[in-house]
Request: fold
Amino acid sequence: MPISGQLGGLLGNPTEIFMDGIAALPAGFRRRREKVFGAGRCQPLDRNAKARIMVYARAWSARHKRPGQHRGPLTRATLEVLEALLWGFHNSRDGRCFPSYETIAARAQCCRDTVYEAIRALEAAEILTWVNRLIRVQFRELDLFGKLALRSRLIRTSNAYVFRDPMPCAQVPGEGRGQGRGGEAVGASFFALSSKSENPPRTQNQDFYLLSREGGGAKLSQNEKLELALTRLKSTMERK
Reply:
């Protein structure tokens, strides 16, 4: 056997070795997470937007389900964590959402490690993102002369979460302007605060409907189910 063949068998695929080296970058070379003071970036969402996010998460997971799997990449616990964030902690009016892992775990009835893995999976699916929140804590300690001196220290606290609305026409708060009755410009956050965008009480949202109800009982593919869910969601929004 030629020497090149022996070396190739020992070293394996050079491309795989190179990709493994990229995937295992040291912490100093990875992209640093954004750090903010206060509430962080806020994104107001009404009930319809939250329902769209839940529908999109289920459809995305069903679309990426591999053969032989009962569920997709987003497990039931992951969807329960997303539901707890949207309906339990996200403030629809000002968009603030920064609960701790322990609080999320108590709401979703799971452990802290499950919350950590669920948030990682949701960020990989581009359903949400988060930033580090910092607070400044002041304390007193003895200085070199034995006197009490006021010191301050930065401490990381709970993360701030921002969700992505899957609708193409959804506007980012602060971007895009509309026209009011008097012709004045109206920001995108106005539509999130409007009571007309809220569903009335006891209204069945889109995420409770089964995808198999459409199509006369015919078995649909994953792509067709996703298109059907988004089309039905768009038609419902246009009727409102």
